[in-house]
Amino acid sequence: MNLRVLIDGRWAGDTGIGKLFREVMGRAPAEISLAFIQSDMRLGSLLTPWMLAQEIRKSNADVFYSPSFMPPFQSRIPFVFTIHDLMHLFYYTTWHRLYYQQVIARLARKAQQIITVSHFSKKQLVELLGIDERLITVIYNGVDEVYRKNEEVFQSERPYFLYVGNRRKNKNIPAMLTAFARADIPSDFMCFLSGHGDEPLCALIAQLGIEKRVRFLGRIPETELPKLYKGAYATLFVSLMEGFGLPVIESMASGTPVLTSTAGSLPEIADHAALCVDPHDVDAIKAGIETLVNDADSYREFQQKGKQRSAQFTWDRTAANTWKVIMDNERSNETD
User: Fold this and answer.
1) pTM of structure
2) Which of 29, 231, 274, 305 could lock onto 258 through a cystine, CB 3.0 to 4.6 A?
3) Under 8 Å CB-to-CB from 54, ≥6 apart: which residues?
4) Which pLDDT band holds residue 336 (cuts at 50, 70, 90)?
C-alpha cells in the first residue's frame, strides 16, 4: 500500500517557501499518495495549529508534512515540518515572539522530525527554542537549473547591482543603499531592487542624492529572474540575518558575483564563494562594493567560485532528502 501523506499545500505561493513546496511536491516518489489540507485559513493565522489538528483527525493519512513553521496542535499520526528561520524572534512584534516561544516551540517538540535549511538555523532552534538537536535535520534548499543554463541577459544601458527580496528590517536595505551611495565607483552604476519603494526608503534615497541611480522593478515574475541575475554586475544581499538566502545561490549559478554578509547562515551558504562583509558596518559594505568594481581579479574569482559552489545545491537533492525524512520517520513509527 502506498504511503499516504497529508500536505499543508496552502504555502504554494510565489515565495521562497512556495518555491520549496513546488520543487519537493514535483518530485514525490511513486509510492507516495498525496492529499492536501482543504482549509482556506490564511497563512500565519494563530489558529493554524488547531485547524491542522482537525484536518489530520478527518484524514486517513499515515503522516503529515508542512513546508513551513506551523505544526499541528495535536496529531494522531507522525508529522514532519520545516522551520526555515527564527526571524519572528527578532524582527516581528512581541506577540510574534511570544507565540513562537510558547506555542510553536512546545508543539515542535512533538514532531517526528523538524527540517531546517542551514546549520545556523539548527543551532538557533536548539539554543533559542530548546529543541533536541536529534529532532532536527538540515536540508539545504536548491537552485533551479535554469539559472545555470540561461544565456539571456536583462538589457540595461548602465551596469547595475541587483537586490532581490522583501523590505523586512533584517534585509538591511538602508545600509546597503547608503554604502552604494558612498562607494568610490563610477557614477553610471545603478542599483536595481525588486518590489516598490516605500515612503521611508524613498526619503533615504533622496537624502543620499541617488534618485537617478536607483530603480524599483516591482514584482518580478520568476521567469524573469534568471535574466536579471545574468545581466547584473553583482548581487547585493547584505542581510542582518537569514535562515538560508536563495538569492545568493541563484546569483552564483547565473555567474554573477555576490556581496553578502558575515551574519546568520550566509557565510555557511556562500562558503568563501562570495564576498562577505559585516552587515552592521556601512564602511565595510562600501569597501565590498568597491572591491567588486575595482578589483578585476577578485571579481573573476568570485564568478568562478560562485558557479562551483552553486552546483552543490540542487532541488533533486533537496526533494530526495525531504522525502527520505518523511518516509523514514513513518517507517520508524511502524516499528516502535
Assistant:
1) 0.92
2) 274
3) none
4) very low
